[in-house]
């Protein structure tokens, strides 16, 4: 975990404090109370499938910039800290490929610890399945070098398809749309601003009746 030198809230030099069973960097100012629990980030990407004359195609974008320029992958990126996750992935799909699509379900996720190959921060990367609404794939030619719907045969023949993206597409192909974790607007807390809950099923209150 990256170390911090100063409190990000009040700029005091940080010391350490025993909290939750281990030593953590913490602000010595009792009123401030800042504790550094670590660096976390959330990534997301979307599998968007298209049936074209009986041929299944998947949306891929090609990275225009390093790291990994030239690599093909699912459209996606980091969720902003104040952005509902389903909107983050829908935004990324539209920004990177000009395709409008709506979240159907969560089909996979990866957890990677900071400092490993996953990147500098501990990260959860969530792969969504989205329903295509409209749009012809377009790209900006800078961040994204190319974008399009490709058949599975085409993807199999492409160089430099990110393994995680290929695996995400496989997850979507072998499962029914909606069989993953779906947004449940009726779940406890789902009405709170800034909260989203995803479940395998919409819970029926009769579960609790004998
Ligand atoms: Zn402080």
Distance between the termini: 49 Å
Total beta strands: 11
CATH topology of the largest domain: Nucleoside Triphosphate Pyrophosphohydrolase
Helix content: 10-25%
| CATH-defined architecture of the largest domain | Alpha-Beta Complex
* Structure class: mainly beta
Oligomer: single chain
The H-level CATH homologous superfamily of the largest domain, spelled out, is Nucleoside Triphosphate Pyrophosphohydrolase
The distinct ligands, each listed once, are: zinc ion
Number of domains: 2
Major beta sheet summary:
7 strands, mixed
Uncertain stretches: none
Number of contiguous helices: 3
Architecture overview:
- By secondary structure, the chain is mostly beta strands.
- The chain folds into 2 domains: 1-38, no CATH class; 40-182, Nucleoside Triphosphate Pyrophosphohydrolase (Alpha-Beta Complex).
- The protein is 14% helix and 36% strand.
- It is built from 3 helices and 11 strands, in the order E-E-E-E-E-E-H-E-E-E-H-H-E-E.
- The chain has helices at residues 85-97, 152-157, 163-173, and strands at 15-19, 22-26, 40-52, 55-63, 72-73, 76-78, 100-112, 122-134, 144-151, 182-183, 198-199.
- The strands form 3 sheets. Strands 3, 4, 5, 6, 7, 8 and 9 form a 7-stranded mixed beta sheet that branches. The chain has a two-stranded antiparallel sheet with strand order 1-2. Strands 10-11 form a two-stranded antiparallel sheet.
- It is globular.
- It starts with 14 loop residues before the first strand and ends in an 11-residue tail after the last strand.
- The mean pLDDT is 93.
- Zinc ion is lined by residues 7, 9-10, 12, 27, 29, 32, 34.
